[in-house]
Amino acid sequence: MQRGDSLNSPFVPFSPNPSIQQGTPTSTPPLKHTLSSSTSSNLRYSSSRKSIYDRHLNRSQRSELSKASFAFLFGEMVQYAQKRVNGIADLEKKLNLHGYSIGQRLLELLLWREGRSAKRETRILGILQFITTTVYRSIFNKPADGLEKSRDNEDEYMLIDNDPMVNSYISVPKEMSQLNCAAFVAGIIEAVLDGCLFPGRVTAHSVPTEQLPAKTVFLIKFDESVIERESVLG
Amino acid sequence: MSFYFAIVGTKDNPIYEAEFGTSKQGGDGVARFREEQRSMNQFIVHSSLDIVEEVQWATPTMYMKCVDKFNNLQVSCFLTAGNIKFLLLHDQKADDAIRQFFTDVYDLYTKTLMNPFYEVDMRITSGVFDGKVKQAAKKYL
Amino acid sequence: MSATKAARVGEDVWKTRIDKVNAELVTLTYGSIVAQLCRDFEGDYLEVNKQLEKMGYNIGLRLIEDFLAKTNMGKCANFRETAETIAKVGFKVFLNITPTVANWTTDNKQFSLIFEENPLADFVELPDDGRAQNELWYSNMLCGVLRGTLEMVQMQVDAHFASDILRGNEVTEMRVTLVRIIDDELPPGED
């Protein structure tokens, strides 16, 4: 019996997830739970499959699908979002939110997989390296191409990807040529940073060069609180 | 020996709570908190959050062992990658057993989160989850 | 083409001609899409099903070209061959799974695809709101993909899920029916 429902709890009541954008219906499909049904599940389970809790988390760790599947799915995600937004910036925000939702899950999954030796990052450089290596490798099968600290701004870092997969496989219609689908990846990065308590904004910028026409920089701008804490930690 | 267990979200909000009694040494697994004690449990655990928030920057480990003491009670903590806190209120030291318990719960929490219909900070209401947490408690505590 | 030959082609193409990606990325992306739809349509699962089918249909229209380019497959002789090709080559090459073709009707116009595995549904548990398990077909996009793909090769089909493990059924089964061959002289949808 979950007692939290019955007592006057000193805890702050449940507040909505920041990844759900303001303005969208806040009614997530409600988990209707009265006290009496809080532990009895109404869900049916197949006898062969039982529940998600019976499936090993590593089962699909090395599984692969075709890149084309991802590309088609992503393309449709963009198309769908496009109908519900006004303008490129809004569209990129939607992509960012999708990435964010994925990033939150990836973060726990990756740390869980490290097992007993798993450690939480407490320093800026540590979390950025975690993203450029572990996170990037798990999604894109290769580390990010570079990590730089801004010379001018103490709170800014740049993660470099010479050829983001999301851009190479997605064909963007001409009228959306300013759209940077890497906003999706920016969302993933932002979620990892937020989850580890390094809040900030992450934006994707195309910086094509002659040799690297698809080169993209993810600009990471940390909140002041992060910089303060970092200097306290010394 | 009785235990009070809570999972606390990123906004200091409770997303899951449970009580267990020890199953070791002939215990029947049923928690026996006096009524007055019960209402204290949440307060003790809640106030330990402040300490967790400090200590978490001094150490990279997820299992933080005992972070706070109150009379004869101790609060042990496990911090997930996404800053979700598992807090166990107990009256005896049992580091290894508690670590194993937390590890099992981390597995269950991650599975919960991987479900696209579950959002971070939502209450966990799955009966299966509840059953498995209690199973883990029975196994280790 | 026999089932075994189709299986061999599927395996071969999968191994040699397909760029691959982490399956979990696709799983999570699909999950994010479905969850977003459920929010946008405020829990109207029937609408979500329709939207998923439509998105799948859009994908199907473009997917066929990719499929033909990668597999160099010729025209199927009959609907039975089409079924085997879909199951052993199509699904293999895109999702690395090979659902089983079963339950043919005697007129050979209807069959089932039984999914032992479904990477789209990994980790998923439907909301415990008393409705999702009765109304939502989580993987409904696949039905649309089939409809779109086959329309591009002159077949009008109906594809829908008959059961889904996520709903507590014993198997995940899609029912595919050939409605009619789309004659070149008549635009699809007209009789």
Automatic annotation (TrEMBL), chain A:
It comes from the Eukaryota. GO terms for biological process: endoplasmic reticulum to Golgi vesicle-mediated transport. InterPro entries: NO_sig/Golgi_transp_ligand-bd, TRAPP-I_su5, TRAPP_component. Keywords: Endoplasmic reticulum, ER-Golgi transport, Golgi apparatus, Transport. Residues 1-43 are annotated as: Disordered. It is found in: Endoplasmic reticulum; Golgi apparatus, cis-Golgi network. Pfam families: TRAPP. GO terms for cellular component: endoplasmic reticulum; TRAPPI protein complex; TRAPPII protein complex; TRAPPIII protein complex. The keyword Hydrolase does not apply. Part of the multisubunit TRAPP (transport protein particle) complex. Belongs to the TRAPP small subunits family. BET3 subfamily. Plays a key role in the late stages of endoplasmic reticulum to Golgi traffic. This is Trafficking protein particle complex subunit. It comes from Tuber melanosporum (strain Mel28).
UniProtKB/TrEMBL annotation, chain B:
GO terms for biological process: endoplasmic reticulum to Golgi vesicle-mediated transport. It comes from the Eukaryota. One of its GO terms (cellular component) is cytoplasm. It holds the Pfam family Sedlin_N. This is Sedlin. It comes from Tuber magnatum (white Piedmont truffle).
From TrEMBL, chain C:
One of its GO terms (cellular component) is endoplasmic reticulum. GO terms for biological process: Golgi vesicle transport; macroautophagy. Its main location: endoplasmic reticulum. It comes from the Eukaryota. CDD domains: TRAPPC3_bet3 (cd14942). Gene3D superfamilies: Trafficking protein particle complex subunit 3. It holds the Pfam family TRAPP. The keyword Endoplasmic reticulum applies. It is found in: Endoplasmic reticulum; Golgi apparatus, cis-Golgi network. InterPro entries: Bet3, NO_sig/Golgi_transp_ligand-bd, TRAPP_component. Keywords: Endoplasmic reticulum, ER-Golgi transport, Golgi apparatus, Transport. SUPFAM superfamilies: Ligand-binding domain in the NO signalling and Golgi transport. Belongs to the TRAPP small subunits family. BET3 subfamily. PANTHER family: TRAFFICKING PROTEIN PARTICLE COMPLEX SUBUNIT 3 (PTHR13048). This is Trafficking protein particle complex subunit BET3. It comes from Tuber melanosporum (strain Mel28) (Perigord black truffle).
